[in-house]
Design goal:
116 residues; alpha+beta; Alpha-D-Glucose-1,6-Bisphosphate, Chain A, domain 4; five-stranded antiparallel beta sheet; 40% helix
C-alpha cells in the first residue's frame, strides 16, 4: 500500500514540474526583439540587470552561458525566465522565453528592453 501511495504521489508531483528550457524553446518565445548591440555586450547587460533586479526583497541570480549553437543564453534561477541572444547582421536577435507568465515576467522584460 505504501508503495502505491508513493508511486501516486510521484506521478502527481511530476505533473507540477515546470517545463525545461528546451521544452519552452519548442513552444516558442514570449517575445522576439532586436538590438544594434553585439550579442556579448547585450548578454552581459541582461545578466547584470537581472542579477540586480530586486524580486521579493532579494535579488535572484542570473547566469550567463554560451548558447547552443552561437551567441549566449542568460537565465534566472529555476530557468523560469531566459533569453537566447544570437548574432544577427551587425547586431543581435533576442528570444525571450517565459515559463511562468506573471508580473515578474513583465519586470524581466522591462529590464531586457532597457539593455537593447
Amino acid at each position: 500500500m505504501r508503495i502505491l501511495i508513493a508511486a501516486l504521489l510521484g506521478v502527481m508531483l511530476a505533473g507540477c514540474m515546470a517545463p525545461t528550457m528546451n521544452e519552452a524553446r519548442q513552444e516558442g518565445p514570449y517575445k522576439v526583439l532586436t538590438s544594434s548591440k553585439s550579442d556579448a555586450a547585450l548578454a552581459k547587460c541582461v545578466q547584470y540587470e537581472w542579477q540586480n533586479q530586486p524580486i521579493f526583497g532579494g535579488a535572484p541570480g542570473a547566469t550567463l552561458q554560451p548558447g547552443r549553437d552561437a551567441g549566449y543564453t542568460v537565465f534566472t534561477e529555476g530557468s523560469q525566465y531566459f533569453v537566447d541572444i544570437q548574432p544577427k547582421g551587425s547586431g543581435s536577435e533576442v528570444k525571450y522565453y517565459v515559463v511562468v507568465g506573471n508580473w515578474i515576467a513583465n519586470k524581466r522584460l522591462s529590464a531586457l528592453q532597457g539593455c537593447l
